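pasting for the record
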Amino acid sequence: MNSNIQTARSRGLRRTAALVAALALALPAIAAAADGTTRMSGVVNLNTADVEQLQLLPGVGQKRAAAIVDVRKTRGGFKSVDELVEVKGVGEAMLERLRPHLTVKGKTTAKRL
């Protein structure tokens, strides 16, 4: 009977260890989702990106992406990343968070991690 208890405990410990390992891997993604950020690599060209590509940016959903496209059409494009603050809902703080992921020249290379 003792060996059965030890085997059950051993299985329970392995399951617990597997659960802890899975949570450790998932926590960065959970934290990113909770604070509204998205893990991504590459850059998004403000002058050529479509709504879906703009949504790869942290904190940019469908409405804000559509607003960026509308401002781009109205202005005839962005000459500088700094002009993004002219989009409703984009302030200086958001611009600074997005800046490493933005460009106004070249290709959009952004990918979700």
